[in-house]
């Protein structure tokens, strides 16, 4: 039986003002949010099929940028492909993230200027050790996002995202990487790690950035 070509028709959607209100409130009070019903399940299915596109050249992710870039499998083992609206599903995804950008700027004056994101595939047993996505004043990444694309993830499979408090390194939240779940957190404030899993793990990680000119520092080569 042929499966329907769902990836041809991912639905377009508008993020409700009430969802943006809740997201903004959570960022102000907690610094992070976990949202489960923002994305249409059909779009999530389409985004999962992006990983099978022949034009997506997955590279082993590294640490650092430009000349400082190194692959370090003892730190992270994911394989990534940058997202640039290669398909209707990717365009829809970026459209939703654009609505979140505008919605948060209107509510919190965050000055979010653009958004970069990549598909991330963690082979079985791989992980991403505890890290910060941005260091104060040294990066233009201000808000991290992760959208999970894993259907029927059971709680014994591992692969959780663990968020820690910056002050005392206590576990703040363990997030199961379930399809459709979006995690948003302030990039400078939460050390986090991805635990190894007994199955392949699919997600889209992204970062809202402020304009480097207004941040005062050019995105550093690291
Ligand atoms: O996939 C996740 O849960 C988090 C990924 C992450 O921390 C990163 O790519 O910087
Ligand atoms: Fe991260």
UniProtKB/TrEMBL annotation:
Gene3D superfamilies cross-referenced by the UniProt entry: q2cbj1_9rhob like domain
Cofactor(s) required, per the database record: L-ascorbate
Pfam families documented for this protein: 2OG-FeII_Oxy_3
InterPro entries: HIF_prolyl_hydroxylases, Oxoglu/Fe-dep_dioxygenase_dom, Pro_4_hyd_alph, Pro_4_hyd_alph_FE2OG_OXY
Keywords associated with the record: Dioxygenase, Iron, Metal-binding, Oxidoreductase, Vitamin C
Residue stretches making up the Fe2OG dioxygenase domain: 108-210
Domain of life according to the entry: Bacteria
PANTHER family in alphabetical order: EGL NINE HOMOLOG-RELATED, HIF PROLYL HYDROXYLASE, ISOFORM C
The protein's name in its UniProt record: 2OG-Fe(II) oxygenase
């Amino acid at each position: 039986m042929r499966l329907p070509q769902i990836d041809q028709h991912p639905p377009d959607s508008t993020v409700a003002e009430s969802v943006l209100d809740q997201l903004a409130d959570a960022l102000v009070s907690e610094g992070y949010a976990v949202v489960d019903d923002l994305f249409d399940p059909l779009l999530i299915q389409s985004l999962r099929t992006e990983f099978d596109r022949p034009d997506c050249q997955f590279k082993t992710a590294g640490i650092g940028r430009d000349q400082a870039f190194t692959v370090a499998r003892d730190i992270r083992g994911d394989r990534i492909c940058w997202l640039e609206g290669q398909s209707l599903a990717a365009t829809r995804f970026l459209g939703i993230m654009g609505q979140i950008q505008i919605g948060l700027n209107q509510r919190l004056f965050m000055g979010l200027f653009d958004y970069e994101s990549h598909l991330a595939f963690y082979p079985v047993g791989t992980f991403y050790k505890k890290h910060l996505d941005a260091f104060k004043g040294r990066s233009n990444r201000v808000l991290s996002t992760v959208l999970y694309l894993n259907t029927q993830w059971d709680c014994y499979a591992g692969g959780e995202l663990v968020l820690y408090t910056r002050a005392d390194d206590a576990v703040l939240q363990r997030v199961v990487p379930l399809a459709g779940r979006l995690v948003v957190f302030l990039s400078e404030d939460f050390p986090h790690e991805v635990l190894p899993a007994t199955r392949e793990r699919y997600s889209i990680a992204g970062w809202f950035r402020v304009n480097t000119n207004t941040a005062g520092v050019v995105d550093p080569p690291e």
